[in-house]
Amino acid sequence: MNSSPADIAAAPPEHGGGGNGLLWVLVAVAVVFAFLRPRAPMDWLRLVDWQTVGALAGLLAITQGVEKSGMLQAAAQRLLARTHNQRSLALLLVASAAFLSALVTNDVSLFLLVPLTRVLATQAHLPLARLVVLEALAVNAGSALTPIGNPQNLYLWHRSGESFFAFMGMMGPTVAVILFWLFVATWLLVPRTPIALKPETGAAPVQPRLLWLAGALFVGFVVALDRHWLLAGLGVVFGVFLATYPRVLRGIDWALLAIIALMFVDLRQLAELPTIAALLGHWPIAEGWRAYLAAIVVSQFISNVPAAILLGGYVHDLPALAAGVSVGGFGCVLGSLANLIALRLAKVPHGLREFHRISVPFLIVCAASAVLLRLG
Q1: Distance from the Cα of residue 194 to its chain's centroid
Q2: N or C: more exposed end of the chain, with fewer CB within 10 A?
Q3: Contact 362, 141 (CB under 8 A)
Q4: Measured distance CA(336)–CA(150) in Å, rounded
Q5: φ and ψ at residue 164, rounded to 5 degrees
Q6: What does the pLDDT profile of the chain (376 residues) look like in tens digits?
Q7: DSSP states along 55-87
Q8: Which DSSP category does 97 fall into?
Q9: CA distance 89 to 33
Q10: Cβ(114)–Cβ(135) under 8 Å?
Q11: Which domain holds residue 79?
Q12: Considering all CA atoms of the chain, what is the largest pairwise distance in Å, rounded to the nearest integer?
C-alpha cells in the first residue's frame, strides 16, 4: 500500500538511525560509572551541557513544525524536477551542507537539509543512508572553516586570540584538503544514475500558517540562543506549539535528547579518569603532527568538542589541535555530535553500519593527507 506525501508529512516519526541501541549502551556505561565513581545527584546533572541539549530540543520542535507544514514535500518536488541524476543531486546537497555549516553551524545545517533529503527519498528512488552520511561529513568539513561553525572552533578561537579571518586562514588548508576528498567520495559513491520517481499518489497540502510560524520561531529561537535566553526561548517555542499545533511536539525525537545528555555524562567522566590524565601528561603531544594525531584519536573516543577542551591543557600548538579535532569528527560516530544528529534525523535502518562503512575510510584518507600540513 502506497502512502501519499500528505500521509508522509503527518505520519508519526520512526526514530531509526540504528534504533535505540546506543541509548542503552550509554545507560549501561552511566550505571558502571555510578558504581565506580559515586556522585551526588546534582553533580550528575552538572555533567550535562544543558545549553546544547536545550538548543537541540528547540530546533527539533521547530524542524517538526517545518516537516508537518508540507513545505519539504513541495520543495522536494521542485528540486527533483530540476535535477536529473543522483550524482548531481548528491553534489548539490553536499555542497549546500558544507556551505551552510560554515555560516549557521553544523547542527543547524543538518536540521535544514536532512529532513529535506529524507522527503526526497520518499518521492524518488535514492540511496538515503548514503546521502545523509555524506551530508554529515560535509557539515563537519564546512563548519571547520569558520570560528562560529562548530563549538570546538568557537572555544579554540577564543583561546587563540586570532581575528575572525585569521582563524579562517589558519583552518583553510585543512578544510580544502577535506573538501577535496569529500567531493571525490561523493563522485565515487553516488552513481550518475537517472533519478527514478516513485508513483505520485497525491500532492502534500502545504500549510502556510504553520510554515510561517515555524520560520518565525526559528529566527526568534536563534536570537534567544545568541542572547543566552535559552529558557525563555524554549518556553516560547514549546508554548506556542502546544497552544496551536500540539501534534508537532508529539513528533520530537526525545530519545535523541537522552542520547546527547548521556553522552555528556559518560564522556566527561571518562575524560576525568586519572589514567587518562596520566597518559596525556606522559605523551609528547604538545605540538606538531603528534598534537594533530592525538586530537584525532581522542576525538574518536570522547567526541571532538570534549577532546578540544581536554587536550587544550596539554597541546600548545592550536592550529594542530584545531585541525585534529576537525578531522577527528570523521571515523567513529562518536567523533562528532553532528554524526548522531544526522543519523537520528534520517530515520534509516542500518544507518550506523553505512556511516562507518564510509566514514572510517574517509577519516584515514583525510588524516593521512592533512598530516602533511603538520610535518616540518
Answers
A1: 29
A2: N
A3: no
A4: 10
A5: -55, -50
A6: 333 333 333 333 444 444 577 788 889 999 999 998 888 888 889 988 888 888 889 988 998 898 888 888 888 888 888 888 999 999 999 999 999 899 877 888 898 899 999 989 988 899 999 999 999 999 999 999 998 888 889 888 888 888 889 999 999 999 999 999 999 999 999 999 998 888 765 556 788 999 999 999 988 998 888 788 999 999 999 999 999 999 999 888 888 889 888 988 887 888 778 887 787 777 888 788 889 999 999 999 888 988 998 888 788 899 999 999 999 999 999 999 899 999 989 988 888 999 999 999 999 999 999 888 766 4
A7: HHHHHHHHHHHHHHTTHHHHHHHHHHHH--BHH
A8: H
A9: 45
A10: yes
A11: 5-373
A12: 64
Name, in order, each residue with C-beta under 8 angstroms of 49's C-beta and a sequence gap of 6 or more.
Answer: 264
Q: How many independent structural domains does the chain possess? A: 1
Whether 170 and 159 have beta carbons less than 8 Å apart is answered as: no
Q: Please report the sign of the dihedral spanned by the C-alpha atoms of residue 340, residue 177, residue 100, residue 293.
A: positive
Cα separation of 188 and 360, whole Å?
Answer: 16
DSSP secondary-structure letter at 38?
-
* C-alpha cell, 254: 526525545
Q: What's the residue count for the chain? A: 376
Amino acid at 298: V
C-alpha cell at 196: 527514478
DSSP secondary structure string for all residues of 152-171: HHHHHHHHH---HHHHHHHH
Residue-wise over 32-56: b if at least 16 C-beta within 10 A, else e? Answer: ebeeeeeeeeeeeeebbbeebbbbb
pTM (global) more than 0.90? no
